[in-house]
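task queued by scheduler; priority normal; single chain, no ligands, no partner chains; default sampling; output format set to C-alpha cells
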Amino acid sequence: MGRAQDLLEKAMGNMNTLLENQEFNGRFKSGLEKLELQKDKFFFQSLAGLPSANKLFKATEKMIPECNESNMLEIEKIIQEIDDKADAPGTVLT
C-alpha cells in the first residue's frame, strides 16, 4: 500500500472514531462512503494523492479534540476536492 493510501486509511479510521459524535454522524458516514469509492484508485496508489490524503488526515486529527462546524466544513471540503481530483482525466489508469 502506498503512502497516500496509508494516510487515507488513517484519516478514515479517525472518521470512524468520530462517528460517535451524534451532531456530525450523518456527515461522517457520507464522507466515508465517498472515500471508500476513491481509496483504491490510481490517485492514491501514486504520489499524486499524497497531499490530499495528508490534508485530510490532519483535518481529522484536528477534529478529534475540537469537534465543531468549522472543522467539519474543512473535512467536507477536502473530501470534495479528493472526489474531484481522483476522477479527473490523467489520474486513473486506462
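post-processing summary
- DSSP finds five helices and no strands in the chain.
- The helical segments are 3-18, 25-38, 42-45, 50-63, 69-86.
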